[in-house]
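User: Quick sanity check before I run a bigger batch. Here is a single chain. Can you write out its predicted 3D structure?
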Amino acid sequence: MKHLATRARATLTGLALGLSLGLTTTAALADAAANFPNKPVRIVVTFPPGGSSDAMIRLLAPKMGESLGQQVVVDNRPGAGGNIGLSVVAKAPADGYTLGLGAAGGLAANVSLYPQMPFDPIKDLQPISSVAAIPFLIVAHPSMPATNLKELLAMARSQPGKLTIGHGGNGTAMHLTEALFAQMADIQWTDVAYKGTGPATTDAMGGQIPLAISDMPAALQLVRTQRLKALAVTSAKRLSALPDVPTVAEAGLPGYESVGWFGMVAPAGTPPAIVKKVHAALQTALNDPATQASIRNLGVEPAGSTPEEFGAFIKSETAKWARVIQKANIKLN
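Assistant: Done. Predicted structure follows.
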């Protein structure tokens, strides 16, 4: 009996100690959240310096810093389709001082493209908000006989495998956009992977290939000067910059939609109060009219959301691209 009583006292002491430690930890987290931020905040960007996505976050970071009362610095960590940068975020302390700007690849498609992932986008990252979207254009050399999407589809179906279309590289959003199009249209053509959207767009302009999947930064001026013709835009809505270009859905392929997108995340387990502060600072930056205009000048469309909405969107995009990737048998090492 004495032995049982001793064990009971030890158990109660352990429970009390555990409760005390839990309360201390909770109090510490609450204190950290209340004082956040008290030092600079880092945004890990999964793209190299100089591109439209990098330019976009460098427009948003100072505005976020104004709201947070601390400097927000940009840390470029490109490579492996976004896996390198997002892995840094996933393994960082969940204290709000390391955030990430990822894209459709690293946050949704890569789990189906790569045989091994250094992190789990769903389990290891906390969604904060969508940030922006980049619609793609199906562009053609001016000599292309097809003047609209329906004529292009007719050409592709009458000449299976003979038409060639370029895109920005294996496993990129442009590649997946092309693959989804071919699957939904039930056509066969030859896709050519380039090292970036720019080279694919340049070759289409030069006539080396008849078609390309391009984006606004690469194609807008070429379309406006008629060095390329835009057959359709891949977003759900027409673009204000090219209002006469129809969407793929309205031009002949109902239900089609594919855009490149970016979103902000934090390490999983980041306290909700900190997520709320970061989210509020980001939305303030995204809603600033001057910042919006500057972002749109990059060919990018600002697009905010709640953390819950962004989390649901990541899950839906992960499932969508998994089906496309499996059907097209796209693989990356």
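The radius of gyration is 24 Å.

User: Great, the batch can go ahead then.
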